[in-house]
Amino acid sequence: MSLANQFAAYTAWRSRLATYIGELQSWLSQNELSDAQSDMRLTQLLERLREDRLNVAFVAEFSRGKSELINAIFFADYGNRMLPSSAGRTTMCPTELLFDGNKQPCIELLPIQTRATNSSISEYKRFPDEWTKVGLDTESPDAMQYALRHVSETTRVTPEEAGRLGFEVGEGQIELYSVGEDGLVEVPRWRHAMINFPHPLLKQGLVVLDTPGLNAIGAEPELTLSLLPNAHAVLFILAADTGVTQSDMAIWREHICGGGMARRGRMVVLNKIDGQWDELKSAEEIDAEILKQVETSANILELPASQVFPVSAQKGLVAKINGDTALLEKSRLPQLEMALSRELIPAKREIVCEGTESEFGDVSRRIRGLLDSRLVGLREQLTELTELRGKNKGVVEYMMGKVRAEKDEFESGLQRYYAVRSVFSTLTNNLFGHLGLDVLRQLTHETRAAMLEAAFSKTLSDAMANFFAKSREALSKSGGEITEILAMMEAVYKRFAVEHGLKLGSPTTFSLLRYEKELDRLQAWCDDHLNTMVSLLTHDKKNITQKFFEEVAVQVRKAFEHANRDAEIWLRAIMAPMETQVREHQIQLKRRLESIKRIHQATDTLEDRIAELDGVEKSLLAQIDALEEIIGRVQDMLLPLDPKQLEAA
């Protein structure tokens, strides 16, 4: 089963999952069981499923056959090359291939001059006017080829301008950015490209990231700090005829798997093995040569040989287009696709399942708890009314007084509930006092001032280290507030469960660990690239300051933004069950009191009221069965799949 087919199966699974969750949302609305909190959480969950993307990044030096490999794996069914693939450099800027149904097919290009600002690519994506748009005629292959050549364009600037844009001129092994006879330096014309193309795979949510060689990777930090780390799979392409070159090794260590620590979804592809095909050699001799190259590359990259995949992308593409099964097998492309499927699809499915299970589980437990609470209250009413059969008026009055006393006691207990809400509000304010973006803005302002005023390298280094230390301190204090909120809510849940019989379970937990790890990752990158003795001694402090804030600080801010959003969702989720149960308990006590009053005043006959409540009980049990059926369908979708099931899908 090809990667394209497995991805299609994954997309179909995701669509069915969204359908079942949508069914629950509609059912809750029809049965008047929905509330603002549940509806919002289900809506957000459905939006995430609709916007779900599968990001696959291809990284290589130029002339490794990267664009041809993208064509062979994803776009062979198109019947032609989607991306231009020829000798020399075909991709000069990071290029995303995706589909947005709200836009016409086009190429959007961000001018390289935007590198001089302090704004990231993701920020520029909010401002369409900053991008140059080129239309795509999807009916004309020639027009498509012509339009796609824009990603290969360069421009010439002064050495000073090149440095300002982040391109180091004439340093180390970098030869591309050298001063020409005209005194100018050739650099990419575009900073980033987005190709909006209505291909079936892209429509299903695939996003392919095509990266340029080492020099452009180094020049665009968002690529290495955000786009590559967040990709679900990264394919690192080598050429079989050159093996692992010095620049290949630099990319591997700097941007993919430093220290040989391979992460899930990171693969090495040894391309162009068709160069080893020789009619004067036996198949065994050719296989032995290819195996030797695989083992050599694996040893240099400090990886098991099983993680290096020899292929011929060009022959694989030709074989797929022409339906040549023998050539496709010889190209070894199916083995790479199978490995990619094993890594990519299950990993992505697991991520979606975890997120869905958490949100959906909280909502479904709340609704089930609400129905259980109603059922308990209803059965208490039935028990009370059944016990009144054949009793005199005095007994009815006694029962009415008993329920009224329960109601008064509960409403007295509500004072504690309101006190809890007040303390909860205070703790919430304390939490956002540490975690909020205002604190981070102030820290960013102070750090920038300290770095610009620094007279010595140590002062500059200390300012960067202090930025991370204070950011960690903010997360640590926030974690303390979260622990306090959780402990308080656990105690309140238990107290109300014991005193009033509310079914609250345990409050939802929350942790900032993922954001602490993100700070660790960003500081490690900073310490490797900016906060080093060589960098501090050889670069102007303004240049280091600018790089720190446009490359590192912007990513820290993103982490805090996500932490704030997740904390807000958690705070609503932890209070919602209690609010729902308190409101429901009040309603049930009021209904019990009214029932007995009506019997006492002879406005209702006892048997009629019991019959009416019997009907309500049957209706409630039917609702619980219907809810369980819908929940069961979603939970079945979230069960882990073994490889055989995935293959069968």
What keyword list fits this structure?
649 residues, two-stranded antiparallel sheet, 11 strands, 2 domains, 22 helices, single chain, alpha/beta, Rossmann fold
Give a quick precis of the structure.
The protein contains 22 helices and 11 strands.
Description:
The protein has 649 residues and is of the alpha/beta class. The protein folds into 2 domains: 51-153 and 189-331, Rossmann fold (3-Layer(aba) Sandwich), CATH 3.40.50; 388-604, no CATH class. The protein contains 22 helices and 11 strands. The protein has helices spanning 3-30, 36-50, 66-74, 121-124, 141-148, 159-164, 200-203, 214-219, 221-227, 246-256, 283-301, 313-322, 325-331, 333-387, 393-435, 437-453, 457-500, 513-529, 533-538, 541-600, 606-637, 643-648, and strands at 54-59, 95-98, 106-111, 132-135, 154-157, 185-188, 190-196, 206-210, 233-239, 266-271, 308-310. It has a 9-stranded mixed β-sheet with strand order 4-3-7-2-8-1-9-10-11, sandwiched between helices. It has a two-stranded antiparallel sheet with strand order 5-6. Helix 2 runs antiparallel to helix 14 (333-387) and helix 15 packs parallel to helix 16 (437-453). It starts with a helix and ends with a helix. The model has no long low-confidence stretch (mean pLDDT 83).
